[in-house]
Write a structure and sequence with these properties.
Elements lengths: L1 H5 L4 H16 L4 H17 L4 E2 H11 L11 H9 L3 E5 L9 H4 L4 H4 E5 L7 H17 L6 H8 L7 H12 L4 H11 L3 H10 L11 E6 L2 H5 L2 H12 L12 E6 L11 E3 L2 E3 L4 H10 L2
Parallel strand pairs: 4-5
Antiparallel strand pairs: 1-3, 2-3, 4-6, 6-7
């Protein structure tokens, strides 16, 4: 964030760029809009001009987007960049009047007849706008703990399919589970079929596609724990929480699961409350633990 704060941009342009960044943070499906802006600034600086033909820009996006897990053939994010944010105007190749009104921009055949450019008040900020794009993209790519889905996608999209499992794990850490919207965003960014993603979430027991509790209670049911009475622990927990195995309490506080060996067979039966392991448990101890929780 240091560079972003130091960049001296025209206040109105800065406000629009920050709105774009906030939109990407709130909705990772808008990450391709930022990519189109990135592509524009690269081409404009390479050509030392603020005016870039739409067809050239679209071609550049189509050639480079796949590396970042973005569908370069979809022009909708580019059009959204023009119409949803007051940054650009379209200029006819025949030299007619520039078009900046969003409603008019939506009607134009950009690919055949227009080039786009920063609005006149912002043209002197081209280089700084590029620095802003690079810094924002880096911020999204490097954000980890306490990050956003946009950051997860920016980090793993270049890896593609081999980044699927870590992307799912990191995305789940953000909200505790994986909504369909999140899975669709991951599928689009990593260029992986949604059906394949559901196959992975079904295979790995600790990837959740339904809301789960704030705290997991995981009771080991491997042979040593079972023989030591883990079934009695589960029975007591089900009765106290009013849930079945694999369910979440109505208040969203707990999810109850039975799991394979937790690696403490000598101290069976064992269970985990969140990240805390408890050993040599009895139904009475389990009840006391549950009652001690706020």
């Amino acid at each position: 964030m240091g560079l972003l704060k130091r960049l001296r941009l025209t206040p109105e342009l800065k406000a629009e760029l920050e709105r774009l960044r906030d939109d990407v943070h709130a909705d990772p499906n808008k990450l391709p809009i930022l990519f189109w802006l990135r592509a524009y600034t690269i081409l404009a600086l390479e050509r030392d001009t603020v005016a870039v033909r739409w067809a050239k820009l679209a071609g550049f996006v189509s050639r480079t987007a796949r590396e970042f897990g973005i569908n370069g053939l979809d022009h909708a994010p580019g059009r959204a960049l023009l119409t949803a944010y007051q940054i650009f105007q379209a200029v006819p190749l025949d030299g007619g009047a520039a078009v900046a009104d969003a409603a008019q921009l939506r009607t134009l055949d950009l690919g055949r007849d227009y080039q786009i450019e920063l609005r006149p008040a912002y043209q002197k900020d081209l280089a700084r706008a590029h620095d802003w794009v690079v810094a924002t993209w880096t911020e999204l790519s490097e954000t980890k703990d306490g990050g956003t889905l946009a950051g997860v996608l920016a980090r793993w999209a270049p890896v593609g399919q081999s980044g699927l499992l870590p992307a799912l794990i990191e995305a789940q850490e953000l909200e505790g589970w994986l909504s369909r919207e999140t899975l669709v965003a991951i599928a689009q960014s990593l260029q992986v079929p949604l059906s394949q993603i559901y196959g992975v979430t079904d295979f790995y027991a600790h990837l959740y596609t339904q809301p789960v509790g704030k705290t997991f209670i995981r009771v080991c049911d491997d042979v040593p724990c079972y023989l030591a009475g883990s079934s009695d622990l589960l029975h007591r927990l089900k009765n106290m929480l009013w849930v079945r195995d694999g369910e979440t309490t109505e208040d969203g506080a707990y999810t109850l699961e039975h799991v394979p060996c937790l690696g403490h067979c000598a101290d069976a039966p064992v269970a985990m409350f969140g990240r805390m392991l408890h050993t040599q448990l009895t139904p009475e101890k389990i009840a006391a633990l549950l009652n001690s929780k706020p």
